[in-house]
Design goal:
heterodimer; A: 507 residues; alpha/beta; Aldehyde Dehydrogenase, Chain A, domain 1; Aldehyde Dehydrogenase, Chain A, domain 2; 2 domains; 6-stranded mixed β-sheet; 14 helices; 25 strands; globular; B: 127 residues; 4-stranded mixed β-sheet; 3-stranded mixed β-sheet; 22% helix; Ald_DH_CS_GLU (chain A); Aldehyde dehydrogenase (chain A); oxidoreductase activity, acting on the aldehyde or oxo group of donors, NAD or NADP as acceptor (chain A); oxidoreductase (chain A)
Chain lengths: 507, 127
């Protein structure tokens, strides 16, 4: 067990600077309007740094810097870009502990997650796209003996990226790595809830990127996000967040006729078929962990398995065992490596979760465990902690249909395969899903029948760079991760060439 | 008709304050990830509503133009049994909603509609 010292105190592996400006054109610059906002840690609720409050003027300046850099950056060889991405990964690996503590302090998630998931995944993401871009090939179509169509991949230009607060570094890297690999320049706006840890990462790697290739403008959605998304000189906008803002982003993109990728969340079903309980073996144990995964990252995951569907024939026994597992989830100081669940990322997030617990009770859902805010005492009393909570109810209830984005599980039962699929698909969203069964056939059929972009089968919450991630239905448009993500950051150039040296005969 | 959406005093005060900067305002209830499930407040004209939206309520707040409160029709199907109150809490960030820079956040509190209210709104009671 290790308990990291709070950043900024004696013995800390890392301390934040008192202030972060915008990073534009390869240097830190003050915001045009000179304003800053405070950034609190959800661990204690105390402010720990201040952040530039960006506006349209700053976004303009960043887009200009991006275009200035693009001519040269877009023409670098894929080998050069891959080397840079690999160097970024190496720097991150050398500073893994520092990055993990920085992200935990800013977001409130347990350091065991940042040490073992967020940061290692981000590192691997850079390495994956370094490899993918070098392995990518264009195409040649021989149309006839004299005519050839060549297809080239070209970068889009300057792209906008708006990052969520639940994985401040990993979600940024999901968007950065493919965009950089493909040769684009970037204007990135971090979430206003978690604007600082990306600058800790930037401090480590900024000398590796030519000036203007990556620009980071901080600020609020209305003041900096909207000017970025609606900017007439960006060639693409990528957003992770909620549906109303997603629509607004598409609205802006329609005005500028640019492509969008959107990842807008879900209400992911986690389906446990009857044969899960055939034996109390290591598979059964993995399914119990699968049930408990709703608490990972305090439930602040777009693919949180927030609906558990359990076959009625095993319901009482399986749920009993699963609740025992939930009781073992250790809540505490996020900087303690033994802590499994930390703080919600912000006060408003905490308030929203509590309001959903209230409506759950009003709608008649039965509280099986948790259901309250946690007071962990001492300096942690000011933090935003919620008990892992399980409600039993019906899929038509609001807690079964809305993304609470907290450690709140909505549990129900089903009778047989058909009803399982019906309930699983009775949702506006389709981002993730889980299926647990000892039968390969059942696993395959269910996985194909559930309308979601990713169906984890006998596992959950794995996020490798080499697997496509994205939503069906209202969960969004496009995919992240996987080599196919390069397509979202590339233009196709077709050269249609005649080697005939003679007229076609029309005129 | 009794209102399906109301605002608390704190939320009304914030709306008055924001109107001085942004002019007339409207709400669109969000769903989904991160800042989802929250009411987003925009200057009128910024967010385009359409055939896929339901106008749930026109909020009358003293001293302000009427504030329309929308929700997507698909989301409404799950929300139609509840009365909503727009409250204001301390917070940081909420998509492009205009209150965020104030260090505040609009938030929905809900209660179940009574049988009388369901009848009044023509909503069939849940099985």
């Amino acid at each position: 067990m290790t308990v990291y010292a709070n950043p900024g105190t004696d013995g800390a592996v890392f301390s934040y600077k008192p202030r972060y400006d915008h990073f534009i054109g390869g240097e830190y610059v003050a915001p045009a309007k000179g304003q800053y906002f405070e950034n609190p840690t959800p661990v204690t609720g105390q402010n720990f740094t201040e952040i530039a409050r960006g506006t349209a003027e700053d976004i303009d300046r960043a887009v200009d810097a991006g275009w200035k850099a693009f001519d040269a950056w877009g023409k670098t060889s894929v080998a050069e870009r891959a080397v840079i991405l690999n160097k970024i990964a190496d720097r991150m690996e050398e500073n893994l502990e520092l990055l993990a503590v920085a992200e935990t302090w800013e977001n409130g998630k347990p350091v065991r997650e940042t040490l073992n998931a967020d940061i290692p995944l981000a590192i691997d993401h850079f390495r994956y796209f370094a490899g993918a871009i070098r392995a990518q090939e264009g195409g040649i179509s021989e149309l006839n003996n004299d005519t050839v169509a060549y297809h080239f991949h070209e970068p889009l230009g300057v792209v906008g990226q708006i990052i969520p607060w639940n994985f401040p570094i990993l979600m940024a890297v999901w968007k950065l790595a493919p965009a950089l690999a493909a040769g684009n320049c970037i204007v990135l706006k971090p979430a206003e809830q978690t604007p600082a840890s990306i600058h800790v990462w930037l401090d480590l790697v900024k000398d590796l990127l030519p000036a203007g290739v990556l620009n980071i403008v901080n600020g609020f959605g209305i003041e900096a996000g909207a000017p970025l998304a609606s900017h007439p000189r960006i060639r693409k906008i990528a957003f992770t967040g909620e549906t109303t803002t997603g629509r607004l982003i598409m609205q802006y993109a329609s005005e500028n006729l640019i492509p969008v990728t959107l990842e807008l969340g879900g209400k992911s079903p986690n389906v446990f078929f009857a044969d899960v309980a055939d034996e109390k073996d290591s598979f059964y144990d993995s399914a119990l962990e699968g049930f408990t995964f709703f608490a990972l990252n305090q439930g602040e995951v777009c693919t949180c398995p927030s609906r558990a569907l359990v076959d009625a024939s095993i319901y009482d026994g399986f749920v009993g065992d699963a609740l025992e597992r939930v009781k073992l989830v250790k809540q505490g100081n996020p900087l303690d490596t033994d802590t499994m669940i930390g703080a919600q990322a912000s006060n408003d997030q905490l308030e929203k979760i509590l309001s959903y617990m209230d409506i759950g009770k009003q709608e008649g859902a039965k509280l099986l465990i948790g259901g309250e805010r946690s007071d962990l005492g001492g300096e942690l009393s000011g933090g935003y902690y919620v008990q892992p909570t399980v409600f039993e109810g019906d899929n038509s209830m609001r807690i079964f249909q809305e993304e609470i984005f907290g450690p709140v599980l909505a549990l129900t039962k089903f009778n047989g395969y058909d009803e399982a699929i019906e309930i699983a698909n009775d949702t506006l969203y389709g981002l993730g899903a889980g299926v647990w069964s000892r039968s390969g056939t059942q696993l395959y059929r269910a996985g194909r029948a559930i309308q979601a972009g990713r169906v984890w089968s006998n596992t959950y919450h794995q996020y490798p760079a080499h697997a496509a991630f994205g939503g069906y239905k209202q969960s969004g448009i496009g995919r992240e991760n996987h080599r196919m993500m390069l397509d979202h950051y590339q233009q196709t150039k077709n050269l249609l060439v005649s080697y005939a040296n003679k007229a076609q005969g029309f005129f | 008709m009794s209102p399906r959406v109301e605002v608390t005093g704190a939320a009304a005060d914030m709306l008055r304050h924001l109107t001085t900067t942004y002019g007339p305002l409207m709400f669109h209830q969000s769903g989904g990830c991160c800042d989802g499930s929250s009411p987003m407040c925009y200057p009128v004209g910024m967010f385009r509503t359409g055939g896929s939206d339901v106008l749930l309520q026109t909020l009358e707040i003293e001293g302000l133009d009427p504030i329309e409160f929308y929700m997507s029709a698909s989301q409404y199907e799950y929300w139609k049994y509840t009365h909503l109150t727009v409250d204001l809490v301390d917070g940081r960030g909420s998509g492009f909603s205009v209150e965020a820079p104030e260090g505040k956040r609009f938030m929905i509190r809900s209660r179940l509609l009574t049988d009388g209210e369901l009848e009044e709104y023509g909503v069939e009671a849940r099985a």
